[in-house]
Structure prediction request, 188 residues.
Amino acid sequence: MACTEGSGPNARSFYMNSFSTLILFLDPFFIAPFRMVSSPALGYLLGTAALTLLCFILGDISAMGVKFLNRKYLKKIQNDMDRHHHLSEKALMMGDKESYKAVNRQALDAFGHSFSLGGAVFCVSIWPLPFALAWMDSRFAHAPLELPFGLPFLGSSIHYFASFILIYIAVRIMGSTLVHRLPWPRRN
Prediction:
């Protein structure tokens, strides 16, 4: 069976080489915050925090863009949920159990669409993580962060993946808190 263009081992090699080239190109930009202080441990934490902040910002901008491009559809789903919820409450107050069940099913369907779109927007917000982690793997795969104390389940050193995820979660919580306090983007 012959390999078609865009598939097979040659295409995989091309994409991996392109990705490696991209990582090498971005390396000086990504490594700069790690070298801002003389302490290796503090530099690692500062650099990882800067990288996670960059991931948060790029991801949030992407998620806002997706929400903006789909704002009419998101508004329609929200209106459907609200309308069906009010109709189901009205039917329940009137004692019409069959109408309540029918309208409530429609409200649950609209909620399912809203929930799925929320999950999709979240996935868009974390797209930079695999790229940042690939770069960190190229730099820190064999150099775990040595801790001055032992932690349960982790020991006295922490791998780049665990430290990155922990710092990313902290940055995401703090960043989301700050973004929600800004006058823009207004959330409906």
